[in-house]
Amino acid sequence: MPHVEPHYLRYVALGDSQTEGVGDGDDTVGLRGFADRLAEHLAHHNPAVTYANLGVRGRLARDVHAEQLAPALALRPDLATVVAGVNDLLRPGFDADEVAGHLEAMFAALTAQGARVATLTFPDPARIAPLARPLTSRATALNARIRRAARRHGVTVAETGHHPVVTDPRLWSPDRLHASPLGHQRIAAALAHAIALPNSNDDWTHPLPPPVTPSPTGWRATAAELRWAAAFLGPWIGRRLRGRSTGDGRTAKRPHLLPVQTSLGTGCGEER
């Protein structure tokens, strides 16, 4: 039988800060992010595609389920991405079964309505920030449950968790919690490849060229870790203790299906 390329008209992205695009742009110039980049890839091949982004920073999996699933279903997407769970993984009371349960409920509802659904696995946090070593087992447990839930509902999984390149510091923002512009580009390319979009391939798995400046070692590395903890980890813990979130008072940046502007580039395959 001849190969038939997928043809999507309505793409809806559900999730937290990564889906919103934090780390790729800012709140002044606007956020781009992997979902915008994936939408641009879709529009490059089909200008009729429309796109909505329901992601809001700081949301737990249960929040994404409670706040975003119903609006997503109302938009009747034929393609949806569901990316959530990292905020849960960082919480003291993390429960992998509970988080995966919320993800699976979204997988089930979206696929039952006929949408093609894609998600991804997460890298070991300790390979990005050594102080995060206690989270390694949590990430492993969550990834295993995401894979099982995805298999039960025919959801496509972009396996971004185990490729060495995903922990290259250049793919991460200074806070090490959010992808950099290059990281968002790689996530978009991984999802495009996973769902077999035209002109997608496994280039996103390839390592970056050697850095011009080598990573610090010895006491310089220790000092860098302490600076990171003071600048980002400490404030994050402080917000959690006060019951605050960076997403307080925020709503989805793109709650309606709208045409996609492709002036920012040709899609998720370009690196800048």
Short note summarizing the structure:
The protein is α/β, with parallel strands linked by helices and 272 residues long.
N- and C-termini, Cα separation:
38 Å
**Numbering strands along the chain, what is their spatial order in the largest sheet?**
7-6-5-1-4-8
Helix content bin:
25-40%
The portion of residues forming beta strands comes to 5-15%
The Cα radius of gyration reads 18 Å
Mean pLDDT: 85
Main sheet properties: 6 strands, mixed
Order of helices and strands: EHEEHEHEHHEHEHHE
How many E-type strands? 8
Question: What's the tally of helices?
Answer: 8
The SS-based structural class is: alpha/beta
Q: Which residue ranges are poorly predicted, with pLDDT under 50 across at least 5 consecutive positions?
A: 263-267
Question: Which of globular, elongated, flat, extended, rod-shaped describes the shape?
Answer: globular
Describe this structure in words.
- With 272 residues, the protein is α/β, with parallel strands linked by helices.
- 40% of the residues lie in helices and 12% in strands.
- The protein is built from 8 helices and 8 strands, in the order βαββαβαβααβαβααβ.
- Helix 6 links the parallel strand 6 (116-120) and strand 7.
- Helix 3 (61-74) runs parallel beside helix 5 (96-112).
- The longest helix is centred in the last third of the chain and has 24 residues, at 218-241.
